[in-house]
Design brief:
- With 268 residues, the protein is of the alpha/beta class.
- The chain has eight helices and seven strands; from the N terminus they run E-H-E-H-E-H-E-H-E-H-H-E-H-E-H.
- It has one domain: 3-Layer(aba) Sandwich (Arginase, Chain A).
């Protein structure tokens, strides 16, 4: 199943995230993408969070729509154009409920593993993995199909980590190398008997000198060719049952030119 879900509220003000998702949708020109409607609850004002989460009402409402769609359709695979990283709690928890040992590959400059009480920003796009671990805001637990365990999480491109997240990564012994070692990653996944993968791809994992149309720009990231090679190699060794492309803020087709290879690998 192909999903277009331009959720931006998980990023606070979320400037250009919705428009960036639409740019990708227009590039792909694939009529099979189904749209998840966004909430009409007023959002973007980030000085009065609920449960220490900005735009909580809108996020919870539209994520419920996503969950209901998957409950009804029961797809075997999921491919999502987003949107901010907070939307991942629905597709990852869904696929985790279908496959007995799903590996989660998190291409991202950020760990996205804060609890609301630890988050400096109160923006939900920094909390999805902690939510998926069953350690997030309790009122969002009903949105999950299942919870994951730390051993399922594997980071690629991680380099901007909050202090509370560092503790979580170390305590959970979560794979988070400073630099990509693809053969090491493949061997580790195989040692865990992982057969299926979910590939989360936030474009801020990339080196901004090569692609800077991202919501955050973090130096010393993955080269585009590295990212493409990684995706190809993971496809070679494992069954990829879900992918996402998130937090690009490109507003024109020309601005997508550097990442067309990644889009084609992940969404087609």
């Amino acid at each position: 199943m192909k999903i277009y879900f331009p959720q931006w509220q998980g990023a606070g003000n979320g400037e250009h995230i919705e428009a960036g998702a639409l740019t990708i949708l227009n590039y792909l020109k694939d009529p099979d993408f189904m749209e998840i409607p966004l909430s009409t609850i007023p959002s973007g004002i980030v000085d009065n969070p609920t449960f220490q989460i900005n735009n909580y009402g809108a996020i919870s409402e539209q994520l419920k729509r996503f969950k209901v769609l998957l409950e009804n359709e029961k797809p075997e695979k999921l491919f999502t154009i987003g949107g901010d990283c907070g939307l991942e709690i629905v597709p990852v928890s869904y696929l985790n409920s279908r496959y007995s040992n799903l590996g989660v590959i998190w291409f991202d400059a950020h760990a996205d593993i804060n609890r609301p009480c630890d988050s400096p920003s109160c923006n939900f796009h920094g909390m999805p993995l902690r939510t998926l671990l069953g350690e997030g805001e309790p009122t969002l637990s009903s949105l999950l199909f299942s919870t994951i365990v730390p051993e399922q999480i594997h980071y690629v491109g991680l380099r901007d980590i909050d202090e509370a997240e560092k503790i979580c990564l170390e305590y959970g012994n979560i794979y988070h190398p400073r630099r990509l070692n693809l053969s090491e990653l493949v061997a580790l996944l195989k040692s865990k008997d992982i057969l299926q993968l979910y590939l989360h791809f936030d474009f801020d994992c990339l080196e901004p000198n090569e692609y800077d149309k991202t919501y955050y720009k973090v130096p010393q990231g993955l080269r585009i060719k590295e990212a493409e090679s990684s995706i190809k190699e993971l496809h070679k060794h494992f069954e990829v049952v879900g992918t996402s492309v998130l937090e690009s803020i490109a507003l024109s087709q020309e601005e997508l030119i550097p990442i067309r290879g990644i889009l084609n690998l992940l969404m087609t």
